[in-house]
Design a protein that fits this description.
Layout: E1 5-8, H1 32-43, E2 46-50, H2 55-64, E3 69-72, E4 77-80, E5 83-86, H3 99-106, H4 108-115, E6 120-122, E7 134-138, H5 142-151, E8 157-164, E9 179-185, H6 190-201, E10 208-212, H7 215-218, E11 226-229, H8 231-236, E12 248-250, H9 255-269
Helix pairs in contact: 1-9
């Protein structure tokens, strides 16, 4: 079956050190990620970025690689050929307030910050200018945090682990490397956004693959024929693959090299 779409995360996956398309995990110059994008173009496969980044950031990255669809803020928003859709269920902008502001007004972000003081903080400066997700960093038990949210009347929200990040001076006493977390509407996810895009385009699972580096990315495996976890994801957190679906593969390469490997292998084997 031909590959018609490749869904890929940005940071830690398509992009290398410094969030550069042309740097590998160690900062050396590389063209492999760009060559993989070229291979997708030549084969007629659409590339859809799925990221926790803000809309403006993902829009610019999609424009730079010549694509018209993208997923932003961990699946809260989806843009297809310029048409935007909010995938946040009943939690929609109202009374002149964004979903981000409505979540702030609910008290849920404050509850998490106070409960996990010293272990969870805003992921500055990237937490600013958001429409939906409250972006934090630290190290907490996500299941425990989500039980807390539900017990305190915030069951319509969930805290999402979007992967390991570099150490931060403000978080010195954590028992492990810090992670990035998004507080988002419970119904929103990268997986749900991918499924919505597939329905819109008429793509079948056997025509789609996905690449990523976090637990949230792994949810997309449910909707595609093959999911590739780049090697650096296990370097940072070996447990990330625990309980993964049977269609999940780990690349030998890290970051963009892993993306290249996933794309070239899938295109070659689909012929």
């Amino acid at each position: 079956m031909p590959i018609r779409c490749v869904y890929t995360d940005l940071d830690g996956t398509l992009l290398g050190r410094g969030a550069s398309l042309f740097r590998d995990a160690d900062g050396a110059f590389t063209l492999l990620a760009a060559r993989a994008l070229e291979a997708c173009h030549r084969s007629g496969a659409e590339v859809v970025l799925k990221s926790g980044r803000r809309r403006a950031q993902v829009m610019e990255d999609a424009r730079l690689i010549g694509q018209t669809s993208y997923i932003y803020e961990v699946g809260c928003g989806l843009v297809i050929d310029g048409e935007e859709e909010f995938l946040t269920g009943d939690l929609q902008p109202r009374s002149g307030k964004t979903v981000f502001q409505l979540v702030e007004d609910s008290g849920a972000p404050r509850l998490l910050r106070e409960t996990y003081a010293g272990r969870l903080e805003p992921h500055s400066p990237w937490h600013e200018g958001r429409e939906f997700s409250h972006l934090m960093r630290g190290l907490v038990d996500v299941d425990e945090a989500n039980r807390l949210l539900a017990d305190r009347g915030h069951g319509d929200l969930r805290l999402v682990d979007n992967g390991v990040i570099s150490p931060k001076e403000t978080l010195q006493d954590l028992p492990g490397p810090p992670h990035a977390y998004h507080l988002i509407p419970r119904v929103a996810s990268k997986a749900a956004a991918v499924a919505r895009h597939m329905r819109s385009r008429g793509y079948a699972p056997e025509h789609c693959i996905a690449v990523g580096d976090s637990r949230e990315d792994l949810g997309v495996a449910e909707h595609v024929c093959r999911f590739f976890l780049v090697a650096n994801a296990l370097d940072r957190d070996p447990s990330v693959i625990d309980g993964a679906r049977a269609n999940v593969e780990v690349t030998e390469g890290r970051n963009g090299e892993g993306f290249y490997e996933a794309v070239v292998r899938s295109l070659a084997e689909a012929r």
